[in-house]
Amino acid sequence: MGGPVLSRVFSGQHLDDQSTYHGRASVSGDREDCSTADGGSILSVESTKDESKEQRMKLSKETTGVRGSVANVRDLEAPLEKRQSSKSVKDPNLVTWNGPDDPENPKNWSTKQRWAATIVVSSFTFISPVSSSMVAPAIPAIAKDFNITNDVESQMVLSIFVLAYAIGPLFFGPLSEIGGGVLSDCWKAEQRGRAISLYSLAPLLGPAIGPIAGGFITENSSWRWVFYATSIADALIQLSGLFFLRETYPAKILHKKADKLRQETGNKALHTKYEHPERSLVNNLENAMVRPFRLLGTQPIVQALALYAAYLYGLMYLLLSTFPVLWTGRYQQSVGIAGLNYISMGVGFTLGAQILSPLNDRIYKSLKEKNNGVGKPEFRVPIMVPGSVLVPIGLFIYAWTAQFHTHWIGPNIGVAIFAAGSIAGFQNVQTYLVDAYTRYAASAIAAATVLRSLAGFGFPLFGPYMYDKLDYGWGNSLLGFLAVGLGLPAPMLLWLYGEKLRKKSPFAAGGD
Fold this sequence. Notes:
The protein has helices at 53-64, 111-133, 139-145, 151-163, 168-172, 175-179, 182-186, 192-220, 224-244, 250-265, 281-298, 300-330, 335-339, 343-370, 384-403, 409-436, 441-487, 489-503, and strands at residues 5-9, 20-24, 82-84. By secondary structure, the protein is an all-alpha fold. Strand 2, helix 1 and strand 3 form a beta-alpha-beta unit. Helix 4 (151-163) crosses helix 17 (441-487). The radius of gyration is 26 Å and the shape is globular. The two termini are 33 Å apart.
């Protein structure tokens, strides 16, 4: 009958950005997710009870060898390829979504439900840095109580908390791939920018809000209440997760659906595209735990983005640790009033997120339309340019206004500009990794978090010595010059070479 006919096959995810082209032996044009006449389950369960287990095993073995097939894609936006795939043959026992508008698909949830899930998850990312940064204004009081006289040791009271961030995500972050990545499960690529802006803003607002509360708690109570307060807040957030978080992982949702149908129909051959004999829980756990190390050790794009994020994160914690000394020392402010200067950091993060993230989505949609409707992670890069410019500008303003002891608004303006540039960098690093490694987004972010957290631990340790030698003027100017050297070329290099590096990766864009 000639060559194979190309037909559009939907992956069972959202209609947009989820499909690829496959060669089909038949010319019927039937979709893999077609519905029954009554609009209920897509399965024709009456006609499939006699199918043998051997036939399904054979089909499973055939499909596992197809690299980049629909079974291996969660939110893939990549050039269309012509491939012969056994998945293109309609499997009457395959359990999938009831069409592209299935309300059980998290991408089809109401906006309220998706934002509720995003806000709860963001709350978890908020409380963690609050816990680590809230102690900053209390460092002198803690050092006094424990007779700590060494500057490095006193700074470790703050930074040692961040060191644990380098270890935890490597082991616990990838487990969310088994349980699902909320943002990539709930949001389409062109909508994901705003969700990730909130998700990225939360951990950056934490270091701004934490010290403000910590300063007044330390001044009016005891530094111990800093830890009591964060424990209480964390317990409330945990409870909100119990009530408002629903399962978002498609594999888990469809597995429950298949179990229900097997019980109702007695057809044991019913299965989802995620269920294969070799995909045991032990194998999944083993692969998930090793993957972040493989990504960090072998993926140049992850390494480059991790280094850039690490530099920004290190600078942020360096400012966090030295801010109290500037305001209580040079400006002679009380601990509580000194903590209010962290508002400038929060203002910068908020303005940067609220102004740049909508632009991020608009630019992404525009570039996607010009690229024949195919999105790329590199379309997140343009918004990194203003961010990479704002970071050194903010550092230079902060440097010399603090050096010459200008009005207190001067250093705060510099810090706000720095924070706005930082959030642009953080958000786009996160979004790029989610878009490029959708299926393994948690592993990619965990890999980047390692270097980021190590920088957050290390930078505050050399801060006091740097400022002793160079003071605030040349000390922060040195950081600004480094930001020019590292930050300004980064967007251009990512735009030019990002796609080439991704194509060399077996993990990027839904690879195996």
